[in-house]
């Protein structure tokens, strides 16, 4: 019943025997112990599980791990530098207090990084539209929008 | 684990995928982008024995310009349609519509073929296929057949696909220089499934419209053409009086649900018709 799945996660080759029904997010959290990627809804609505697969933001609850075979996956644990220097988007969330309870933050940051690659100088409206798929139940959107606007500019350098 | 148990297969060729579908019949489900199917598995509203993941089948993701049509591969992602210059130039209706599908991260995975094969009655792309007179290309063990969008969508999550068949592409006829299209939908929040939506196509003939096709979605068990309203608009200049007559001729029979009553949906369909047809005529 178990099948072998192998991929690269945060630059490291990983492999495990899993049940085919194992979601990518379950694989990341329970097999790899990377619990920064959160599970909110399991139905692709809340965005807490957003990661990057082959450079694009995707919702890790809406894929089975087997679909990521040979893929290059980056989670929130993989965006800071090895010496602990925060990614510019993480730094912007800190600077602008873009989080309250923090549950949605990993997904927000991962989605924001992908968005900022194509929007180096986004308008507030563009940021708000890009956040459609990420819910913050503290309703702290105001500072999240500020953080992403600043983070996108910082990423563009 | 939320999903029920299933076996997983990842064929590397179209023949391999078709052989798996033929062998497992109704017990197999095709996994394309998975943006509806995986949620359905997690909610246990779907429980296939076998998932046939077609993502590694070569050639299914292409968007290509032919002599008389634009061919959109089943695995073309919504985000690719959103960015495609070819789609923007020849099928602007699709470029408009995909922006209403869910959210960016979902559009990175969700596919054209998945949306059509699932046939959610409130989905955007099936209505676009109907408005533009697309043909769906189905492959099975016995060969290939083409089914017009009007015959492909048969009901709630029901299509002309038979067990063992795979939707491989859709062919959209190339619109001529006088073609116009417009799109609108009303949803509780942008990105939600539509309460009511309208994908519209027509030929401009001076100030008048011809070959009007109004494909409504979210108002029936499948996308539907509002033929009587289109007949009112046919060959006429679009003015307030004509629009009012077209709205009065709408013969949709939407059902009410938690999100909106039948009466609300009927009213919103009229509002959308006015908005979208005005844009069509501009």
Provide structural commentary:
The complex is a heterodimer of chains A (157) and B (282). The radius of gyration of chain A is 15 Å and the shape is globular. In chain A, helix 2 (88-95) packs antiparallel against helix 5 (141-156) and helix 3 crosses helix 5 (141-156). In chain A, strands 2-1-5-3-4 form a 5-stranded mixed beta sheet, sandwiched between helices. Chain A is built from 5 helices and 5 strands, in the order ββαβββαααα. Helix content of chain A is 34%, strand content 16%. Chain A folds into 2 domains: 3-78, Roll (Ubiquitin-like (UB roll)), CATH 3.10.20; 88-156, DNA polymerase, domain 1 (Orthogonal Bundle). By secondary structure, chain A is of the alpha+beta class. Chain A has helices at residues 24-31, 88-95, 105-118, 124-130, 141-156, and strands at residues 3-9, 12-18, 50-53, 56-59, 72-74. Chain B is α+β, with helices and mostly antiparallel strands and 282 residues long. Chain B folds into 3 domains: 7-53, Uridine Diphospho-n-acetylenolpyruvylglucosamine Reductase, domain 2 (2-Layer Sandwich), CATH 3.30.43.10; 63-173, Uridine Diphospho-n-acetylenolpyruvylglucosamine Reductase, domain 3, CATH 3.30.465.10; 179-281, Enolase-like, domain 1. In chain B, 34% of the residues lie in helices and 26% in strands. In chain B, the strands form 4 sheets. In chain B, strands 4-5-10-6-7 form a 5-stranded antiparallel beta sheet. A 4-stranded antiparallel beta sheet of chain B has the order 11-12-13-14. In chain B, strand 13 and strand 14 (224-225) form a beta hairpin. Chain B is globular, with a radius of gyration of 19 Å. Chains A and B meet through strand 4 and helix 3 of A and helix 2 and helix 6 of B.
